[in-house]
Amino acid sequence: MRSSTSRLFIALWPTDAVRARIAQWQAQWTWPERASVIAPERLHVTLHFLGEVTPGRILDLRYVLKRVPSQRFTLHFVRPDVWQHGIAVVRPESLPTPLRGLHARIGLALAGIGLPVEERVYRPHVTLARRALGAKPPAEPADVLWEADDGFVLVQTLSGGRGYEVLERFGPQARS
To answer: How many CB atoms sit inside 10 A of residue 26's CB?
Structure first.
C-alpha cells in the first residue's frame, strides 16, 4: 500500500494589506489571452519548494523549522519581469541580508533531515501569472513595501487546484 504524500513549500506569507496591494498592481497588467493569472489569495514568496512529502517527514520538518530563527526585514517590490517559460513576477529591488540568512538557515535545516534543497540561486519574487509571454506590466512600478516581521509558513498545495493551506507558522509571532 502506497503512503499518502503532501505537496509542500515554505514561504513568506503576506498580510491581507500587502496581498491587496500586489493584487491591485497585478490587475493593471495587460495579460495575453492564454495567461493564467494567480488568484490574490495565492500570492506569496516561496523560500523553499519541497514537493511531495510523506506524513512522517512532515513531523521531522515541523520539528526542525521551529528551531530556525527569523529576523524582521523589509521587501520593496518594484521590479516586474516575465521570465522564460512565461512566468510573470514582481521582484524586490534588493535581497536583504536577513532574507538571505533565513533562506540559508532553512536550507541547512532541510538538508539536516535529508530533504532536497534547490541548488539554483535564490531569486525572491511573487509569481503573478503563468503562460504570460507577451504580458505587459503597468507603466508605474509596483511600489509595494512588505514588512516581513512575522516569520514564515509551511504550506500545502491542495489537490485539484483548490489553492493552498497554511499548515503551520514559524518565527517570532508563530501561531499553531
So the answer is: 22
Check if the beta carbon of residue 130 is closer than 8 Å to that of residue 36.
Answer: yes
List alpha helices for 4-162, DSSP H.
Answer: 16-26, 55-65, 97-112
pLDDT digits (tens, 9 = 90+) for 71-91: 999 999 999 999 989 999 999
Cα–Cα nearest to 51, from 159, 157, 161: 157
pLDDT given at position 176: 40
Q: What is the pLDDT of residues 2-50, one digit of tens each?
A: 458 899 999 999 999 999 999 999 999 999 999 999 999 999 999 999 9
| Cell numbers that stand for 120 in this block | 539554483
| Distance (Å, whole) CA 36 – CA 163 | 14
Q: Which of 50, 45, 65, 49 has the alpha carbon at shortest distance from 5?
A: 50
Give the HSE-up count for residue 166: Cα atoms under 13 Å, Cβ half-sphere.
Answer: 18
CB 11 within 8 Å of CB 155:
yes
Alpha carbon 172 to chain centroid, angstroms: 18
